[in-house]
Amino acid sequence: MVRMTIKRMLLSALFLLVGVAQADDVKLKPFVLGSKGAGTVAEKSAQVKSALTTAGFTVVGEYAPYDGANIIIVTNDELKNNAAASEAGGYGAVQRVSVTEAGQEVQVSYTNPVYMSHVYRMNGDLSGVAASLATALGNVEEFGARGMTAKQARKYHYMIGMEYFDEPSELAEYGSYEEAVQAVDAKLSNNLNGVSKVYRVDIPGKQESVFGVALKGGSDGKYMDDRFIMSEIDFRDVNAQRKKNLAPTKKRTSFGVDVQTKFGPARLVFHRQASSAAVAAAVIALILLIVVVDTDWPGQGVSVLHTATDALARLLFDRYVLPFEVVSVLLLAAVIGGVYLAKREPDEPSGP
User: Fold this and answer.
1) I need a surface site. Which of 57, 162, 285, 296 has the fewest CB within 10 A?
2) Model confidence over 303-328: pLDDT tens digits?
3) Complete DSSP assignment for 106-134
4) Helix (H) or strand (E) holding 74
5) Is 58 helix (H, G, I), strand (E, B) or coil?
């Protein structure tokens, strides 16, 4: 009897662990297809805005990056409260909805709040927002690359050499938060270099604001144009959302600017991998300096040594062993980096 009880307990624990492992392996994707069908972009956009307003969302911005596409940006109390409670919450203060022509039909899709909550490392998973969007707009399928688990999303890094999520660099500094916000507002209103303001959302309880922009690059700046960007990252079967977002958080930004006032004057920050690169450069410079100082270099008057293989090996592994090992480590690192960069698969997710 006791054996049977223990066996049942062990089996129950095993099933529980399997269930937890399976739950952890659920793949999240960045976009959700809400619906598709006949109609026009204008008609569907009006229906979408009405449905979102009924579901408790507020439309904070809207723009058409090009013909056949319209982007609607929304927020609600849950999004803003979660943003205020999260260290990197400003990223998730808004959600974007796209209405796009795809062949003979019009598709309505939106950013996946649960996915965004993990890639932006928010405290809550925004499942309530996801349910509200699904009720208002539908939920046919998730799409966008291969997807990631919640754990992978919270540790996401695109590739070697690219910025990490928590690595900002300073763009500008102002005397106060208010001054910084006014400056950003004014500069975006000037529509310089094809960058125009789409929305601004202020995070409650924080001196923090989220700005969204549209990109219209000229002939010499096509890489900053929404049409070109979407031609590169759009998906074959389901059109991705036509979007370009300036989505800041407290001290970090993806495609954008963050206005924040923690520890003194308001600053504008942008992602860079500057800090880690500086540390790596300093370490390599120190190693090279040690090698130069500790190596017993031959004098100028010494003739070139012509030696057999045995003598050369003794020199490499005796007098010059330190520089030899340093060079071998650097070459190994270069080979590993080259293999990693060349091995990245073409359908690997391009980020949040």
Assistant:
1) 296
2) 555 556 777 777 777 778 788 888 88
3) EEEEEE-HHHHHHHTT-SS--HHHHHHHH
4) strand 69-75
5) strand
